[in-house]
Amino acid sequence: MKLEIENVSKTYRGNTEALRSFRLELRPGVLGLLGPNGAGKSTLMRILATITQPSAGRVLWNGTDIRQDPDALRTVLGYLPQDFGIYSNLSALEFLGYLAAVKGLDAASANRRISELLELVNLADASRRPLGGFSGGMRQRMGIAQALLNDRKLLIVDEPTAGLDPEERVRFRNLLSELSGERIVILSTHIVSDVEAVATDIALIVEGELVVHGVPEALLAGVNGRVWEVVVPSTELAALRQRHLISNTAHRSDGVHARVVSDAAPGPGARSLEPSLEDAYLAALATHRNGAHRLAAV
Amino acid sequence: MKTLRVVYAIARADFLERVRRYSYLVTLLFAVYLGYAAGTGQISLRLGNYRGLYTSAWIGAMVSLVTTTFVSLVGFYIVKNAVDRDRQTGVGEILAATPLSKASYLLGKFLSNFAVLLSMVVVLAIAAVAIQLLAAEDRTFHSQPLLLPFLFLTLPAIAITAAIALLFETFSFLRGGLGNVVWFFLWSFGIALPAMTEIPQLDPSGLWLVSQSMVSAARAGIPGYNGGFSLTIGRLIPVQLATGFHWDGVEWTGEVLLLHLAWIAVAFALVLCGTIFFDRFDPAISRRKLGAPSRPTGDAAPSGAALDPATSRPHVATPISLTPLAPEALYSGAGHLLMAESRLALKGYRWWWYAVAGGLLIAQLAAPLEVSCGPLLAVAWVWPIFVWSALGTRETRFGVEQLLFSCARILPRQLPAAWLVGVLVAALTGLGAAVRLALAGRSAGLFAWAAGVLFIPSLALALGVWSGTSKFFEGLYIALWYVGPLHRVPGFDFTGSANGPQTTHFALMYLCIAVALVAAAFFRRARQLRGT
Hints:
Strand content of chain A: 25-35%
Low-confidence stretches of chain B: 288-317
Low-confidence stretches of chain A: 292-298
CATH class of the largest domain in chain A: Alpha Beta
Distance between the termini of chain A: 23 Å
CATH superfamily of the largest domain in chain A: P-loop containing nucleotide triphosphate hydrolases
Oligomer: heterodimer
Number of domains of chain B: 2
Strand order of the largest sheet of chain B: 1-3
Radius of gyration of chain A: 21 Å
């Protein structure tokens, strides 16, 4: 099972380049796709989900070009877009039943799967209520359920935990881990902790380009020995920000505890810390933006 | 001053949002077409079988009346989305959280509506000048008689249209398809009202004013003129130029001006009226007014209220496991999808909707054949208009395109299933007439009925898929239904009952149109699925 993205570019009207010669090869596992706003993540997701055509390049699913034969991918695809609507007059049961029919599931299999999914996303008790009355988090869980309707080999989820409470977020992370066995899962998010929890691979995309692709350990190794904690008076925080990349701050009685990513100790008394994925992400982003050098592959 | 700036900002943003859309170009093209139709005689102003010389006064009156009549009808459907766009995009809720008053908001939207319609009027006013230059029947150009009818007749009429479109959006029950249907009848009534009552104060279109002026001039200047005044589409009835007849245009007395400019004040009053009914994007008010969707018994959750997630969470954590699907579970028969599409299409209709449809069906079986296939079938085929108008648009309306379009075999499965539901609805609601035709051995009538069954959902699907909105079908279908099945104009009656000896001929025509429409819908949807 293989998904190949070969030199994919996407240019929107007005010459806006959302993706530039993007190359990536995916095999079973969870790919965490990270990047700042407007980096091109959602465009890539839509291209992989056959919603949008690339301007150049191609996407191959097990060797088949999905532009030529989109159904080869669609039959095994589960897709949760970042923004999606629902039929507000239908109940959860009816909406999933409708999508199951559209996806070609027979009635008996669909009923069993829908019942399991509603349990899975904690909507069994609300399954007969009109979707129009659902809260944002419940709608998001409906989105997750519909993405799992068929036995997907490729699961694409764009900001899946947006609007979920912490408990539901943890449940969804566990679910993704469970599902990733013999499948390719692509998880796009701004929430680095989600990626940290489940991703077996990480790709960082900035301004439509692939900046980093590798396993989380390798990405973390890149900032090993470069993460520090330094305590400064709050009046000096702005000056510290000018000199260093700060990934986190916390106000304490002795001053501001700043988490700094820097090649050298940022000041007297700085203490070395174990790097987190967020440190690695911010460092890679800063490196790319500064244009010092690009990490083609960690 | 601050209020004016707010109103201007609302109007400007809304206007720019509209004119930067592809559909605005189509709107202007429609205006250009109207000008072309007036210039080439496809739409003409007639005094019985005569027409006047193409002087500035005649052309000004003719094109301004064409503009007033058609732009007020079609323009309503074009601009009736100013508030809805804010509702759909979520901008409305952002605005609702600001100190913006209802009156400022609605006035801004009204001005934007008016500006969009005004741009069409400007195109047609330029067309009027071009017509005089190109027709060259009278080379003397008089700007006042040519342009004043646009200023004093057309502008008040489009102001009324812009205001009513906005007013309809403030009523929850007129916001959707019902409002589109109601407008057609209201417009027809408004056009006919001054002639019926002979009260000049009830003439916002100016049709009555111009007709009175022209008819009295024609009685004095055209020998053999027996009365008659019409704005005619098509060239089936020949028209002859009334040589020697000269009409100088409407006399713009102070009373006439006051009467017509007063309609602009009426338009503003209608907009302010809207502030009483406008819900200010409060979804709770909208849902309460619309009525809660039907829910199973035993469900105590309040209608429209966001459900508490905690109430839907079981106390014991459920295991995360899904039973794998058997390979044969995929690609069930078409019947399963057809059932799902049927449920989706008919969801939300209350018992009385089915009762009326059933009553009409029984009446078709019981009434005399001509009544069954005439007025009863006509009513039966307008009753499910909103089932059909959702075809091809529901995905856009509810924003589920991404979910649907990423599914396999949408084009050969989902779209035909949706269309077939439309066909079944047409067939079932008109079944009584079909049975009667079959029993009477009227094969031509039965063929026309079948063509109608296929034509209606095909028209809905094509217009829906291409436009992404239901209102074009609702407006066009009601107009066609009004002319054809209701007023029994041969050729326009897609039920076939008024087409006399040419029943088979017209049925074939509607069948061919249906095929072309379905092909157009599939073509467009295929492009949408390719992401182009």
